[in-house]
Design goal:
Blueprint (H helix, E strand, L loop, with lengths): L8 E10 L2 E11 L4 E5 L6 H9 L5 E7 L2 E2 L9 E4 L11 H12 L5 H9 L14 H13 L5 E5 L7 H16 L3 E6 L10 E6 L2 E6 L1 H8 L4 H13 L1
Parallel strand pairs: 3-8, 3-9, 6-7, 7-8
Antiparallel strand pairs: 1-2, 1-4, 4-5, 9-10
Helix pairs in contact: 3-4, 6-7
Length: 241
């Protein structure tokens, strides 16, 4: 059995090759329990590949990748890990309630979980609407609600705020912070550098490499910049010289 003080996520020399493309190039990092960690980088940097590797659905993975003391994808993680993909993974011809009941049955979530997650993400007024009739932001909330079924200890959220307006983005981040305050570990990917301030710690990726692993304050201090976007560029310039 994994020890209670083990890290939520441990990655060592994680590599993924797709054809002739090295999607991840020897990533190594450790995430403590209860942290909100941002995985930031431009499109093609390897963010989604890393998320899939952590969930255990990525092919051609080499190196060490463990979640809650188990290898990524282990059956023991079925109800302990929640995953939100970039594209909302819900059935458009079902209502919000029907979607949640279906996914709750799949993972064996306890009775009452549907009502709990609906309240958590603020979808109480939309439960009987067909998913196809929802806005983009509401779709994202349904996907997040699905990931919260079973009260997971680790949440892996791949671009959960992409395409959302500032008000909806703020709402999603409030849910994330509430979850972390309750003890969950949350890994959030984004290509929006401004979202760095929402995270306790940042993993900056570029071309499949881990460019930095630091806090926002630490990144700004070491690069002598005022925002994470400029810090990212400064790190790239330094790596290229």
């Amino acid at each position: 059995m994994p020890s209670s003080d083990a890290a939520a996520i441990e990655v060592a020399d994680l590599r993924v090759v797709r054809g002739d493309v090295q999607a991840l190039r020897g990533l190594t990092f450790r995430v403590a329990r209860g942290q909100v960690v941002g995985v930031l980088g431009p499109s093609g940097s390897g963010k989604s590949t890393l998320m899939r590797a952590l969930v255990g659905v990525q092919d051609n993975v080499a190196g060490r990748c463990e979640v809650l003391g188990h290898p990524a994808g282990h059956p023991a993680l079925r109800r302990r890990l929640g995953y939100v993909t970039q594209v909302a993974a819900v059935y458009d011809d079902l209502t919000v309630r029907e979607n949640l009941r279906y996914f709750a049955a799949v993972i064996g979530a306890p009775r009452g979980d549907v009502e709990r997650v609906v309240d958590q993400v603020g979808l109480g007024g939309e439960v009987d609407r067909l998913a196809r009739s929802l806005s983009g932001g509401q779709h994202n909330r349904v996907s997040l609600a699905v990931a919260l079924l079973g009260t997971p200890e680790v949440l892996v959220l791949d671009e959960p705020t992409v395409g959302l307006d500032p008000v909806l983005r703020r709402g999603i981040w409030q849910v994330i912070h509430d979850l972390a305050a309750g003890g969950a570990t949350v890994l959030v990917s984004s290509h929006v550098m401004d979202e760095a301030r929402q995270c306790q710690r940042l993993l900056l990726l570029r071309e499949g490499r881990l460019l930095a692993d630091d806090t926002e304050a630490g990144l700004l201090a070491r690069t002598h910049t005022d925002d994470v976007g400029d810090a990212f560029l400064a790190l790239i310039d330094g790596a290229d010289t």
